[in-house]
């Protein structure tokens, strides 16, 4: 058990696949013990892969859209100091808002915003008390542009991007850093889970989640405020900053419209 105490502890949410799993691998390779969480049983498979990197890995399967789910995750910390929190759990939902099932739309909001904020507040208070810690929040370049046919998802990411910048400045002298990782379209199960495989963006070229995770992890370790992963996304973000919202919304419609992926 002496070894466990010498290792730093990182919590990674949404860690069963995609960017979350790659973030967990970055933590493991850099000597962090892990507490990983996701809402699906694949989290156990991810844990086996991560243990092969020589660190302690604990898993929690919970719906992080709920306060109970977040409480379950925080209880698993067992009072151990958390050195890094990688709040990455999030999902999307395709199609027009008026055609969506409201419970599904609400689950996106509760996962991406409510559960994320509750987790950050709970763990962040402990970090502030100890005057040390790193928080990496997975936002998205989606937060810079209205998401036609992904209205709720992009709205949640606009919230998260904005929130993370504000939180960073609120606690900038506390010894705790807040970094916002803003990926673009990444090659994960995101589009499948969102029901967006038949869209241009769902079928287009995407970034490698391992690259996105490395960029995010390195930025967190440096304590940078925000990082956009991938040069195309940097360009897109710069363009978004000077493009009227109405034009952006129309461009996004062409990318995310159901059936737009069929030729």
Q: What share of residues is helical?
A: 40-55%
The assembly state of the depicted protein chains is single chain
Under CATH at level 1, the class stands as Alpha Beta
Per the CATH scheme, the topology name is Rossmann fold
What is the H/E order?
HEHEHEHEHEHEHHHEHH
Strand order of the largest sheet: 3-2-1-4-5-6-7
Query: How many E strands?
Result: 7
CATH superfamily: NAD(P)-binding Rossmann-like Domain
Taking the alpha carbons of the first and last residues, their distance comes to 58 Å
- How does the helix and strand content classify structurally? alpha/beta
Described by the principal axes of the CA atoms, the overall outline is: globular
Give the strand content. Answer: 5-15%
The helix count comes to: 11
Characterize the main sheet: 7 strands, parallel
Provide the gyration radius in Å.
Answer: 18 Å
> What is the average per-residue confidence, as pLDDT, rounded to a whole number?
86
Low-confidence stretches: 1-5
Number of domains: 1
- Mind telling me which CATH architecture this is? 3-Layer(aba) Sandwich
Domain Ketoreductase: 8-188
Keywords: Oxidoreductase
EC number: 1.-.-.-
Organism: Azospirillum argentinense
């Amino acid at each position: 058990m002496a070894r466990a105490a010498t290792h730093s502890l990182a919590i990674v949410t949404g860690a069963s696949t995609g960017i979350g799993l790659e973030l967990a691998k970055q933590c493991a390779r850099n000597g962090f013990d892990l507490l990983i969480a996701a809402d699906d049983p694949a989290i156990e498979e991810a844990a086996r892969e991560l243990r092969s990197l020589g660190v302690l890995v604990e898993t929690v399967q919970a719906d992080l859209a709920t306060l109970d789910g977040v409480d379950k995750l925080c209880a698993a910390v067992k009072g151990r100091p958390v050195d890094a929190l990688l709040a990455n759990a999030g999902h999307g939902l395709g199609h027009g808002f008026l055609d969506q099932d409201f419970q599904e739309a609400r689950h996106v909001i509760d996962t991406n915003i409510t559960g994320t904020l509750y987790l950050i507040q709970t763990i962040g208070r402990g970090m502030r008390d100890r005057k040390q810690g790193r928080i990496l929040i997975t936002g998205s370049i989606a937060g810079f542009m209205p998401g036609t046919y992904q209205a709720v998802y992009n709205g949640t990411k606009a919230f998260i991007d904005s929130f993370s910048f504000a939180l960073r400045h609120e606690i900038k002298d506390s010894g705790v850093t807040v970094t916002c990782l803003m990926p673009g379209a990444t090659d994960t199960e995101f589009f499948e889970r969102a029901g967006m495989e038949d869209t241009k963006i769902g079928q287009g070229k995407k970034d490698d989640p391992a690259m996105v995770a490395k960029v995010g992890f390195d930025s967190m370790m440096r304590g940078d405020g925000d990082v956009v992963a991938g040069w195309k996304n940097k360009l897109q973000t710069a363009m978004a900053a000077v493009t009227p919202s109405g034009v952006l919304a129309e461009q996004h419609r062409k990318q995310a419209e159901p059936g737009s992926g069929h030729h």
